[in-house]
Amino acid sequence: MNLEERIKAFATLGTFLGQFSREGYIKKDSVPHNELFFDGFKHQIKLAKEHNGWFTEEQIGFALENWSKALTYNNIKQFVDTYHFKDINPKKVAVIMAGNIPLVGFHDFFCVLLVGHKVLVKQSSNDKHLLPYLAKYLEQVAPGFKGQIEFTEEKLRDFDAVIATGSDNTARYFEYYFKGKPSIIRKNRNSVAVLTGNETDAELERLSHDIFRYYGLGCRNVSKLFVPKNYDFDSFFKAMYAWHPIINETKYANNYDYNKAVYLMSEFDMLENGFLMVKEDSSYASPIATVFYEQYETLEALQHKLETDAEKIQCVVSKGLNKSHLAFGETQQPQLWDFADGVDTMDFLLKI
């Protein structure tokens, strides 16, 4: 398959995914191979929900909507046009995926196949239903993908390079085990928001999506706030209120109750509104239903801290304080060129 054929195949997949959203599933006769795959994918969504309590219809639907928007022909073409694709020597690339949010490993899968390599996928047990089915759809759309995609639950063997995503602890094992291979090894990262007290209610409401989407389980979720001295959290909590139904989700509520009990028994100071706790803490990774905060003296000093801690941070959200920062509400809508950990996956794949 040439690059143009691969682009068109993924664009067709994007059209297929466009039938599945948070509002419901609408079958469109114009989508190729729907008679074979539409009902089957509905079943895979059902299996994913039953297998992982964090994968609600809302969360899966949101993920599918975003991938559908990203996988348009023009978007993919814009993405690839910044790279040099000549003289590609096809390799087999192993991809070890996380399972914290639906289809979290899809971008690596997409990049490997787009470049023209074979992909060997080792999925997390928490997210194992959606991607294999979409791979079958891709093979139906573009038979040239047959033999290029392999899933395994066994020990990885016979591969040329690896992309592995895990915790700081598993990363140490990855680095040792794959030390003889070209690799991208991803560790724990969290996202932060910088508040000045001048944010509008609408901006803080958009921040709530950065915090609560996927229950805060993603590395792009804001888990920590940097606030000025004596920051008044009243406006912040008011802006969070639209998400209060989240406390009706059993797994979230259990985590909220547990973490609240731990904080109370430990006599930690915290603020809470019945579904979210805010606690002063220097760490970046906060438990579910909790957002940490830290006070800063000056924005200049804070910028220095963020630069020093860059390897711990996935995204920084603010009201335009730095050109590298995202706007409120954008963390969970990454573009194809928003690479995890700031490492250009395509550049890596084109050079192996």
Structure, described:
This protein is of the alpha/beta class and 352 residues long. The protein has 2 domains: 3-187, 3-Layer(aba) Sandwich (Aldehyde Dehydrogenase, Chain A, domain 1), CATH 3.40.605.10; 190-317, Aldehyde Dehydrogenase, Chain A, domain 2 (3-Layer(aba) Sandwich), CATH 3.40.309. Helix content is 39%, strand content 16%. It has helices spanning 3-17, 34-51, 57-70, 73-80, 106-115, 130-141, 168-177, 201-212, 234-240, 250-265, 299-308, 345-351, and strands at residues 20-21, 24-25, 92-96, 118-122, 149-151, 161-165, 183-186, 190-194, 222-228, 271-272, 277-280, 290-296, 313-317. The strands form 3 sheets. It has a 6-stranded mixed sheet with strand order 10-11-12-9-8-13. Helix 8 (201-212) links the parallel strand 8 and strand 9 (222-228). Helix 1 (3-17) runs antiparallel to helix 3 (57-70) and helix 1 crosses helix 6. The longest helix has 18 residues, at 34-51. The radius of gyration is 21 Å and the shape is globular. The two termini are 19 Å apart. The model has no long low-confidence stretch (mean pLDDT 97).
Any chance you could write out the topology, listing elements then pairs?
Blueprint: H1 3-17, E1 20-21, E2 24-25, H2 34-51, H3 57-70, H4 73-80, E3 92-96, H5 106-115, E4 118-122, H6 130-141, E5 149-151, E6 161-165, H7 168-177, E7 183-186, E8 190-194, H8 201-212, E9 222-228, H9 234-240, H10 250-265, E10 271-272, E11 277-280, E12 290-296, H11 299-308, E13 313-317, H12 345-351
Parallel strand pairs: 3-4, 3-6, 4-5, 6-7, 8-9, 8-13, 9-12, 11-12
Antiparallel strand pairs: 1-2, 10-11
